[in-house]
Design brief:
Number of strands: 12
Shape: rod-shaped
Oligomer: single chain
Strand order of the largest sheet: 1-2-5-4-3-12
Strand content: 15-25%
Number of helices: 4
CATH class of one domain: Mainly Beta
Structural class: alpha+beta
CATH architecture of one domain: Beta Barrel
Radius of gyration: 46 Å
CATH topology of one domain: Thrombin, subunit H
Length: 310
């Protein structure tokens, strides 16, 4: 116990002495560092050249901490820039979609204004007003009607391909039955084979090709054009291209974009083509009903008339 007390009594004065010397050295260093004298300046330069390069190990933690702070600030700036770029990319995508829609609409308008399929064939351009929106009926309304000389049965196009036909004319509006409607029946020609067929809508986006003489001669990608049979539709109007449906039946992919019908061109038929019975354009339901009664010859009495006469 006595030895420990003696050691502690010697340590305290030594500690005080060391602290005093350190304080005096620091005070002398400050005084020397602040003296404005050429000799002292050379001394300071020599001390700096000797000591500072050897203090890199002491400055390493401070330098690393500074680099970490700089990297964190850089990452935060990169995150902000990434968020801004994401927002700009989303805006650019929306602008791109709008530009594509405008480009397609511009192409249709240019086609409507400049293209004329036949020197004797004229047309009236109308704006699509509304869609029927029914799963059982595919039709649209356009803002041209009887005042514009529209007649039932005329073909309508969107500038790229056949859309359908007029079925119902009002004074200022008309209804267009689309190719995909179940009541649509249009005679067509498949090229290059030249086979005649009937394009039949079934309320899907791919109307059927029926009554082909040699389906094996038809290949996907063949062009489908109106044949002009019956004198209702002008021949040579582009309808679409042949595809094979999921049911392995030959169908037609319309050239017209039914999802973006903005303007329609109503094709006037050739002079002298008139429809006396517009309702006859709508074909009978498929399959055709079988006829059980024998046909009645002209002049034969009809059953029930004799009783009525009596």
């Amino acid at each position: 116990m006595a030895r420990e007390r003696a050691d502690s009594s010697h340590i305290r004065p030594v500690r005080r002495l060391l602290l005093t010397i350190l304080f005096l050295c620091l005070a002398a260093l400050v005084l020397v560092w602040r003296i404005d004298n050429p000799r002292v300046e050379r001394l300071r330069s020599a001390i700096t050249d000797q000591i500072v390069p050897n203090l890199d190990w002491a400055m390493a933690p401070v330098t690393a901490l500074g680099r970490m702070v700089d990297d964190f600030q850089s990452y935060s700036r990169l995150h902000q820039q990434n968020q801004e770029l994401r927002r700009e990319l989303q805006q650019m995508r929306s602008w791109r979609e709008a530009a594509l829609q405008l480009e397609q609409e511009n192409a249709r308008l240019l086609d409507l204004n400049r293209v004329q399929l036949d020197p004797e064939l004229t047309y009236v351009t109308g704006l699509v007003m509304a869609d029927s929106g029914s799963p059982f009926r595919r039709s649209v309304l356009i803002n041209v009607g009887a005042r514009d000389g529209i007649i039932d049965g005329w073909a309508t196009m969107d500038g790229l391909g056949l859309v359908g036909r007029i079925s119902g004319v009002g004074e200022n509006t008309s209804r267009v039955i689309l190719l995909s409607d179940a009541a649509s029946r249009i005679p067509v020609t498949v090229t290059p084979s030249g086979q005649q067929a009937l394009l039949m809508g079934d309320n899907t986006g791919l109307p059927l090709l029926e009554f082909l003489e040699a389906p094996e001669d038809i290949a996907p990608g063949d062009r489908v054009l109106t044949s002009g049979d019956g004198g209702v539709f002008p021949p040579g109007l582009l309808v679409g291209h042949v595809v094979v449906g999921r049911d392995d039946r030959l169908r037609t992919r319309p050239a017209a974009d039914f999802s973006r019908l903005n303007f329609l061109r109503v094709m006037r038929s050739h002079p002298g083509t008139a429809l006396s019975d517009p309702g006859g354009l709508i074909g009978p339901p498929w399959p055709l009903p079988t006829q059980t009664d024998p046909p009645v010859a002209p002049g034969d009495p009809v059953e029930g008339t004799e009783a009525a006469d009596g």
